[in-house]
Write a structure and sequence with these properties.
Chain lengths: 174, 156
């Protein structure tokens, strides 16, 4: 039986990686099937913030005999960010789910995800796109100055200044 | 093996600090500044992913060289500082510099007990210039350098 037969769906290959899209209601069920197909090594679990499209949770499993891996992906909406836990299948998924829960704010049903990396007092989920990076707000971008300008010239709002690359507009002081 | 491991292996092999380690070529220890080459174009400060380069400058008007010439505006460097507490040794500033004002130096002994002491101002960056090694010779089959080709052409 091939992996596609076991999953009941076609797998795609993206950049040389075999990828299976899974509905989140079947998340742990499909992971169990794939594990029993020989992909018995839990490699990693993480998430991707797709903004309006919610969150994508990814799981990579590895076949230690055939030396090949497979990636399973599932989606959950932003206002209901939760997927079933995989800890009954792989005990090692516990740390990954705890890290994903606190960094992305995705809940794992059936797993009490205690804090793993951040202090208890930390507010927010730092890998979400809307999370504002304090280091990019507290400090002024040194490249805003034009050649021949110094700190004092920045006070004069003479013309449009270059914006720091990669920093969304609306972050920090105008 | 990461560059860090290579450096650590070199330190161990040399019984550092009694002996100076034999560092691999192109070791990245610290960044040196050749102020004479800097035109204050701001490229390094804008490309730095860590925002660790601070540059201040002012404009100066140079009087015309000829009788009917025009006065020129020139940028003069006032401050050039690299915060090595933020720097991640990517070397992008050195690569983007169009006038070869920044250089890698293998000097690595600049640890500090205070984070503010890791901000190296232009005087200190100039001092590091003395530790910059000459560029390595070209490979035997390499194309001759552009400077050499130009010099040969001039000589006929």
């Amino acid at each position: 039986m091939t992996l596609a037969d076991a999953l009941g769906q076609e797998l795609t290959t993206s950049y040389g990686v075999v990828v299976g899209e899974v509905d989140r209601t079947r998340w742990s069920e499909v992971a169990a099937v794939v594990r029993d197909q020989g992909y018995s090594f839990f490699d990693l679990l993480t998430a991707v913030d797709l903004e309006a499209d919610g969150f994508e949770v990814l799981l990579r499993l590895w076949d230690p005999v055939r030396h090949e891996g497979v990636v399973l992906r599932t989606r959950c909406p932003r206002d209901d960010a939760r997927v079933p836990t995989l800890t009954p299948l792989f005990a090692g998924a516990g740390w990954h789910e705890r890290a994903t829960a606190e960094l992305f704010g995705v809940a794992f049903d059936g797993h009490d995800t205690a804090r793993l990396l951040l202090p208890e007092s930390f507010a927010g989920h730092p890998l979400r796109k809307e999370f504002v990076l304090a280091a990019r707000v507290a400090k002024r971008w040194p490249g805003a100055k034009e050649p021949g300008e110094s700190e004092a010239d920045l006070a004069t709002p003479s013309r449009r200044r270059p914006q720091p690359p990669g920093v969304p507009t609306g972050w920090g002081p105008p | 093996m990461t560059p860090y491991d290579v450096g650590l292996a070199a330190l161990r092999a040399a019984r550092y600090p009694e002996q100076a380690p034999a560092l691999p070529p192109r070791s990245r220890g610290v960044i040196a500044l050749l102020e004479q080459n800097c035109t204050v174009c701001m490229l390094c400060a804008r490309e730095c992913p860590d925002w660790c380069i601070e540059i201040d400058s002012h404009k100066e008007t140079v009087p015309p060289r000829t009788e009917h010439g025009r006065p020129r505006v020139r940028h003069v460097l006032d401050r050039f500082a690299i915060d090595f507490a933020l720097c991640m040794w990517c070397g992008i500033c050195i690569e983007v510099c169009p006038f070869d004002a920044l250089f890698w130096s293998p000097a690595f002994e600049h640890a500090a007990t205070d984070a503010t002491a890791l901000v190296h101002e232009r005087e200190q960056l100039r001092q590091w210039l003395r530790t910059v090694p000459p560029p390595p010779p070209l490979d035997p089959a390499a194309e001759p350098s552009a400077e050499r080709v130009a010099a040969r052409k001039q000589a006929g």
